[in-house]
Amino acid sequence: MTAVVPAAPPAAAGPEPDPPSARRTRRLTPYWLLLPAGLWLAVFFAAPLVYQASTSVQSGSLEEGFRVTWEFSHYTDALAAYGPHFLRSFAYAAIATALCLLIGYPLAYMTAFRAGRWRNLVLVAVIAPFFTSFLIRTLAWKTILSDGGPVVGALDALHVLDVTGALGLTGDTRLLATPLAVVCGLTYNFLPFMILPLYSSLERIDPTLHEAARDLYATPAATFRKVTFPLSLPGVVAGTLLTFIPASGDYINAQLLGSPAEQMIGNAIQKQFLNVLDYPAAAAMSFLLMALILIVVSVYLRKAGTEELV
Amino acid sequence: MTILLSGVSKTFGDFTAVHPLDLSVPEGSFFALLGASGCGKTTTLRMLAGLEEPSSGRVLLGDDDITGLPPHRRPVNTVFQNYALFPHLDVAENIAFGLRRRRTGRIRAQVDEMLDLVQLGALAHRKPRQLSGGQQQRVALARALVNRPRVLLLDEPLGALDLKLRRRMQLELKRIQTEVGITFVHVTHDQEEAMTMADTVAVMNEGRVEQLGAPWELYEHPRTPFVANFLGTSNLLRGEPVGPGGEEGDDSAGDGALRVRVAGAPAPLRLPRPPAAAGTAADGAGTGGTSAEETAVGEAGTGGTSAEGTAVGEAATGGPLLLGVRPEKIALAPADAAHTVPEGHNALPGRITDAGYLGVSLTYIVETDACRELTVYAQNVERDTRLTPGTRVVAHWSPAHTFGLDAQGHGQDATAGREAP
């Protein structure tokens, strides 16, 4: 009897199937890998969102404390009081996004197809501004665009300011505290977020496709219109979203480069939170901004037709 | 439309991809540029397409000089190696691409016609990535052919397909070419593919055309060791010609054959004297014969014919030469049956060192004094069971199947082109 028992385990120890515990570990691996991101989202996204949502329907005052009273008037009040801010935010963000695309696309195109050995240098140059703080860079623009500075002087001498002034984009003699300054600041600050996705989608296009298009009677312009641009659409969509969404909620540029007349919704929310201390109103405005951005973006995605993008 | 390359060369920095090249491709022919990778064949094709600008020389299509024309203004279309189908367009739109750029009429009808030709009608609205390799290949072909180009360029179009499909597409391509009658210029590194499809093959090596002719001509009468080894397999033996009045084996038979003494061979080996004329005299492969004759090749500056046809001419004046024979032309007789070797055959005694059974054929390696490894192929009809490794045999073949190569010219030794696929 005793001789048989020790003989059994080695017999099973050959090419045995994994023990049940190992199989369970393997099945759970994806969840373990997702755990850090899931926790991060729960703590820093879902929880604040719920908290904000509840704040937005509270009423009361700082002294007496806020209680959830399902007070939805904050939303309608915010729209009524800050409609122009919302409009301005989206208009500035849209213009800045369009400018980013106009500036970023040629740069990304040249980097992807023509830069050769300079390619990495260009990419480093695109990212280099990130080594300085967002705030410092925007403050630097304040100096660059300052009244009587070289930029204003040059534009004035070229009579550019006369034109933009007549269009209401700038003052007749100054750039600071004008819509143009805010849009320029937004464009500058978010340009890398446009260039990088554009570059990565352009860089993936097989250069033989360009040759094939040229071989099939496409002029260089037609090659771009019919082949390069359609194939870079995923980058265009990603770049515009990465630019438009943060630009709509931005308040630093409007605060440093604009006047009260250029205030965006971000400035209004900041003021409600930090100066007026009306937390329910501020929370309601934040939610409204989020909802409006979602609407704008989903309409845009529908139009851009992402479903068949390669 | 006849294509004429005149002194065309291409250099990239210090590297010469294509040496000055004269080449003419007659209208309606199926022309193959054959060579190992890096031999300049694709660069030559790209210069025809306009995707690469020649460093020198002119490209003519019929009477039009198209050297400086950009690709979109050339009446030439290309089937690219990786097909280069537009991934964002479906099959029908891929095919319509060229027609839309030129704003021709009846686009739908022409696309449908072409879809029928390549038998892809049912897949017109699929995206390229939803197609198999063979289907993509046919879309690429249709996309080029629908424009009715005067010349169709094919850059290794079958390289990505598996063997069976490749065989089928070879026949398919040949059928389509016959049907549409357009000049095809086909680049490939696969000698079998070139020989199956092309009327005329130009073998390229290191930026030069080594030899040009009908497939059978290149195979039966290679002019350089590279061609002899790159197209199929050759046994090459180094030897010295013996003058007509030579001491042994002189021209008593009056057969006009040249005698070559090969170290280790019991008697001088014979080879026919004028192989340059053999091309036109030989029967055979037929279809390609005429186009091969119309086709001229040479290196600019050195004159069209100097590189060719001279191998044996020089050899006759006393230089060393390489004597070649294809493995399937050699027969083996056991040493004790040596008397069965026909009179006048070239013969080398030796010993079988290896025998391989391939089903359709048999491969023997015979060690002789003249050649350490003489390769012999035999049809598997009536297998001689005496031919086993270790057996002493006599390898023999008809002098008519022997070719001579200049042993010093071309900067090549007897193994040139052998590593290539």
Automatic annotation (TrEMBL), chain A:
One of its GO terms (biological process) is transmembrane transport. Residues 86-300 form the ABC transmembrane type-1 domain. Residues 1-15 have a biased composition (Low complexity). GO terms for cellular component: plasma membrane. SUPFAM superfamilies: MetI-like. Its main location: membrane. Residues 1-23 are annotated as: Disordered. The chain crosses the membrane at residues 31-51, 90-109, 121-140, 176-199, 227-247, 281-301. Pfam families: BPD_transp_1. It is a multi-pass membrane protein. InterPro entries: MetI-like, MetI-like_sf. Keywords: Cell membrane, Membrane, Transmembrane, Transmembrane helix, Transport. It is found in: Cell membrane. Belongs to the binding-protein-dependent transport system permease family. CysTW subfamily. This is ABC transporter permease.
UniProtKB/TrEMBL annotation, chain B:
GO terms for cellular component: ATP-binding cassette (ABC) transporter complex. GO terms for molecular function: ABC-type putrescine transporter activity; ATP binding; ATP hydrolysis activity. Residues 3-231 form the ABC transporter domain. Gene3D superfamilies: 2.40.50.100, P-loop containing nucleotide triphosphate hydrolases. It comes from the Bacteria. Keywords: ATP-binding, Cell membrane, Membrane, Nucleotide-binding, Translocase, Transport. Residues 265-312 are annotated as: Disordered. It holds the Pfam family ABC_tran. Residues 276-299 have a biased composition (Low complexity). SUPFAM superfamilies: MOP-like, P-loop containing nucleoside triphosphate hydrolases. SMART domains: AAA. InterPro entries: AAA+_ATPase, ABC_SmlMolc_Importer, ABC_transporter-like_ATP-bd, ABC_transporter-like_CS, Mo/tungstate-bd_C_term_dom, P-loop_NTPase, PotA_ATP-bd, Transp-assoc_OB_typ2. PANTHER family: SPERMIDINE/PUTRESCINE IMPORT ATP-BINDING PROTEIN POTA, SPERMIDINE_PUTRESCINE IMPORT ATP-BINDING PROTEIN POTA. This is ABC transporter domain-containing protein. It comes from Streptomyces cacaoi. The lineage of its organism: Bacteria, Bacillati, Actinomycetota, Actinomycetes, Kitasatosporales.
